[in-house]
């Protein structure tokens, strides 16, 4: 399973009495391929690839193409999970 975790932002809010901060973490996963392989002949068919598997290491051009079906990562359904953590749930 390909899983990318990105830290989007850290917000710091100051007032006279306390400091509140939050951390937003977004996890992106690429699922089944949705490319229509029969579009050129007027039909509709997907290849059945159930999950994106990169051909290369993260940061290389091969990481953007799927080892199972050969499609670019953009043809796979993107699933995003967002998590917000308060200042008590991450180290200062």
UniProtKB/TrEMBL annotation:
Biological-process GO terms, alphabetical: regulation of developmental process
An MF annotation (GO) of this entry: DNA-binding transcription factor activity
Pfam families named in the record: ZF-HD_dimer
Domain named ZF-HD dimerization-type: residues: 30-79
Coiled-coil ranges from the UniProt annotation: none
Cellular component annotations (GO), alphabetically ordered: nucleus
Organism domain of life: Eukaryota
Keyword tags: Metal-binding, Zinc, Zinc-finger
InterPro entries: ZF_HD_homeobox_Cys/His_dimer
Name of the molecule in the record: ZF-HD dimerization-type domain-containing protein
Lineage of the species this protein comes from: Eukaryota, Viridiplantae, Streptophyta, Embryophyta, Tracheophyta
């Amino acid at each position: 399973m390909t899983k990318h975790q990105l830290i989007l932002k850290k917000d710091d809010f100051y007032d006279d009495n306390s400091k509140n901060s939050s951390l937003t973490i977004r996890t992106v996963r690429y699922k089944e391929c949705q490319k229509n392989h029969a579009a050129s002949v007027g039909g509709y068919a997907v290849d059945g690839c159930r999950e994106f598997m990169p051909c290369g290491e993260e940061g290389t051009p091969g990481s953007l193409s799927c080892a199972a079906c050969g499609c670019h990562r953009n043809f796979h359904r993107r699933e995003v999970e967002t998590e917000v953590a308060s200042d008590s749930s991450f180290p200062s």
